[in-house]
Amino acid sequence: MSDHPGLALAPGAAGDLRVNGSRLLGRLDDLAAIGGSRDGGVTRMGFSPEDRQARAYVVQEATAAGLRTRIDAGGNLLIRRPSGHRGVERPAVLVGSHLDTVAQGGRLDGAYGVIAALEVLQTLHEGGVATGCEIIAIAFANEEGALFPQPFWGSMVLTGQLDALPSEPQDSSGKPLRQALELAGGDMARLATAVWPPGSCTAYLELHVEQGPVLQRRGRRIGVVDSITGRTLLRVQMQGRAGHAGTTPMGGRQDPLVVAAQAVLAVKALAGAEQLCRVATVGWMDVRPNSPNTVPDVVRLDVDLRDSDHGRLAEAEEALRRKLALLARRGDVQISVEAAVRTDPVPTDPRLRHAIEASAAELGLAHETLASGAGHDAQIMAAITPVGMIFVPSIDGVSHVPSERTAPEDLVAGAEVLLRTVLRV
Ligand code: HGY
Ligand code: MN
Ligand code: MN
Q1: What is the β-pairing status of strands 367-372 and 222-228?
Q2: Over the stretch 258-284, which tens digit does the pLDDT of each residue have?
Q3: Which residues share a beta bridge with 341?
Q4: What whole-number percentage of the chain has pLDDT above 90?
Q5: Can you give the residue ranges of every domain in the chain?
Q6: Class of the CATH-defined domain 21-229+345-424
Q7: How far is the CA of 400 from the centre of ligand 2 (A)?
Q8: Cβ atoms of 106 and 41 closer than 8 Å
Q9: How far, in Å, is the centroid of ligand 2 from the Cα of 364?
Q10: Residue 1 above 80 pLDDT?
Q11: Which of these CATH numbers, 3.40.50.2300, 3.30.70.60, 3.40.50.150, 3.30.70.360, describes 231-343?
């Protein structure tokens, strides 16, 4: 990966080529309105009607810009220049992120990277820039797994990791993904047609808000990501014995919610007192029948463990499984624990890091290397191609909340760095 001889830029293109900042910011505003709420948040969960509306918006903008769009069988949205690429034959460079959000999430997580990728492609197209290989913008489907709990769905399909996906994915109420995927333009029966084999892509680049406090705290405009965290998502179910809250004696109760409460504290201890992993969270719980005067019957909860080290993640999971089994025995409830997601921590590609650093330096932007505590499609794409990630600062380091914000000038600066990095690859 270097300044490729095949990179035949139109004279002066590298120097005076700039993204159109107001177009980028305007599109982010338009997109934030889709699934937007009065508090400035966005709920656009993967394969929801709002998600489909957001895709339609991006397709409309790309088409109006003279670009071509296509939805693959996995539901990923791909955007290409009409003339493909000129110059030497080399596999494409993919640039993108995701359009779906968590419930009551922010307006930038994912959307920023997709809109910036569209902006870069449109800028290259308008500038008539011949690149050494084709640049394709992509919006991966269902990165968050908020509605259909198969996070990284689109990137797992594109990288051919179909065996790691459920054969009949459903949402948490049991609704099959099949129809929702079809409505989005995908096709469960033809997932194999969406697979890109190893070597079919020169590089994958993702621009994203940091979602943490580091860049703001250190006064840096650009983050050069060196590694992306590993993540284990466990689905825990506890089956007790329901009963009348007023007549069921305390002695002998088989109350799954009591055990769940102890489990939440055990999860916290993993990353707290026991220091077994970097962070550990229970963010979702479902209590049945969820009636104030009934001892619960079943409680389900998800456990999200993160660490940059694969071994530590495995150890933390093992320790938690043992602890949960003990709590279930003591509380006389049945328990099941299944790993819904195990995503490895991955390093980014050093050559891409160098290209990002050089691009930021060229623009006079203070930059810093840092790890990503959030997961990204880039870590899935690493299975088939070198990956690079660019961060811009998150105000107050918050994300997955309505107040997720980044300064407009940082959003534009990030897109400029993305453009120059693409031209360097
Ligand atoms: O959960 C994550 O780290 C990402 O937002 N999907
Ligand atoms: Mn996210
Ligand atoms: Mn994201």
Answers
A1: parallel
A2: 999 999 999 999 999 999 999 999 999
A3: 233
A4: 90
A5: 21-229+345-424, 231-343
A6: alpha beta
A7: 6
A8: yes
A9: 29
A10: no
A11: 3.30.70.360
- Per-residue pLDDT of 294-329, as tens digits, reads 999 999 999 999 999 999 999 999 999 999 999 999
The Cα 239–Cα 295 span in angstroms is 12
pTM attached to this predicted model: 0.92
Pocket lining for ligand 1, CB < 6 angstroms: 143-144, 151, 374-375
Ligand located closest to 106 CA:
2
Which residue from 44, 108, 143 has its CB within 8 A of the most atoms of ligand 1, so it is best to mutate? 143
State both tokens at 335: 């328990």
Ligand 2 centroid vs 248 CA: distance in angstroms?
43
Q: How many residues belong to the chain?
A: 425
The atom number, within ligand 1, closest to the CA of 231 reads 3
pLDDT of residue 16: 81
